[in-house]
Amino acid sequence: MKGSALVFALLVMILMSAVFLVTLSVYKKVERDYITELKKIMVFNVTRSTLETVYEYLKSKPDKLRAYLGEFQAELKEFPGTVKLVLSEIGEDNYKLTCTSVLDEFTDTQTIVFRKKSNLFSYAVVALGKLNLSNVAEIYGNVLYRGESKLSVPNNFVLNGNLIVEKAELELSNNAVITGNVEVQNSNLTMSNKSRIGSPDKPSIVKVKENVVLRNNSELYGDVYAGGNVESSGTISGQTFENRDDIAFSNPPNFPPPEIPNDLPSPSGELVLWHREQTLTSGTYSYSAVKVQEKSKLIVDTSNSDVILRVGELNVDIDGIIEVKGSNNLIIYVDQKVTFSNNAEFKTPDGGKVFIVSDKNVDISFSNNSSIENLYIYAPGAKVTFSNNASFKGSVVAGDVSLSNNAEFVEPQSVPVEVSGESSADFEIVEWGKD
Question: Domain DUF7305 spans what residues (predicted)?
Answer without folding.
Answer: 276-409
